[in-house]
Amino acid sequence: MFDPVGQDGHTLFSNGFKWLLEMDAFLRFRDLPTWRREDVNALINRLDVEERNRDFLEGFVAAPFEKALARASGGLPNVFGAWGYDTIAKARDIAVSNCQRQRPQAQCLIVLENDRWVGPQVAFAQNDPWLGMWQLNRAQSKFSPRQPPKSAALNIQDEGQNHKVTITGINAAGNPMLTEVYEQVYDGMPHPVTGNPTYDTAASTRVDDHAIIISRMKAGKLVQISTLVVSHDGKTITATITGTNANGPHNNIAIWDKL
């Protein structure tokens, strides 16, 4: 896995930083729970930092609690971390101290505490292609066997590392649709959905920055799977939806245009 540490192996775990990275690589190879490469991709985008910070951020994500990450305004280096402390307060103090020591003229701000984003939301919002108002492109969408809604609007708002989703519109019969609201939490676990009679929970997984898979359930039973892809120019969302409802099976492709 990596070169021997020390003379007789007793110092194998003394370099916990390196050991944890190797252990996480093993867990990923075996499809066991650990952090994903996509997590670091999202963090790089959220921090709005250069690719050269990847190794450091991978190490931070792998590092043990309690830990904190500070970001400096402008210039390089611009990310500083502290990990393995007894309290989050101590980790915050050390991260800010590291930042101020190397960038004394910069503003140093804590943006991550353990795995929780605590920094400004605008940094992520500027780089998140999903955010904003979207309108259903009825002409390009394909709904089977039923007709698509006469109109629909999709509002995706920033909720830290997650999204708040609101869907409104007019159905194919010309009646107002129930307002569907849910928080799209990217932990793969079911979370409540209101306003849609077909399902009452949804489990969301972020494949990468431009793709999401959502499993929707009714009373714990899987009834629908949606794969959403946002174009790299940020102008279109393509949602491929398969499942069943009170009217039977359906296979839909919904095209959403950015307003």
Attribute tags:
15 strands; 2 domains; alpha+beta; Lipocalin
Main sheet characteristics = 10 strands, antiparallel, barrel
Q: Judging by the overall fold, what is the CATH architecture of the largest domain?
A: Beta Barrel
Mass-distribution shape: elongated
Span between termini: 50 Å
Number of strands: 15
Helical coverage, percent range: 10-25%
The tally of domains stands at: 2
Strand content: 35-45%
Strands of the biggest beta sheet: in what spatial order? 5-7-8-9-10-11-12-13-14-15
The CATH topology of the largest domain corresponds to Lipocalin
Poorly predicted ranges = none
| Multimerization state | single chain
Average pLDDT confidence is 84
Q: What is the ordering of alpha helices and beta strands? A: HHHEEHEEHEEEEEEEEEEE
Provide the structure class: alpha+beta
Radius of gyration: 22 Å
CATH class of the largest domain equals Mainly Beta
CATH level-4 homologous superfamily of the largest domain: Calycin beta-barrel core domain
The number of helices is 5
Description of the molecule:
The protein has helices at about 15-30, 35-45, 55-60, 90-100, 120-125, and strands at about 65-70, 80-85, 110-115, 115, 130-135, 140-145, 150-160, 160-170, 180-185, 190-195, 200-210, 210-220, 220-230, 235-245, 250-259. It folds into two domains: about 35-120, no CATH class; about 130-259, Calycin beta-barrel core domain (Lipocalin), CATH 2.40.128.20. It is about 20% helix and about 40% strand. The protein has a ten-stranded antiparallel β-barrel. A four-stranded antiparallel beta sheet has the order 2-1-3-4. It is built from five helices and 15 strands. The protein is α+β, with helices and mostly antiparallel strands. The longest helix has 15 residues, at about 90-100.
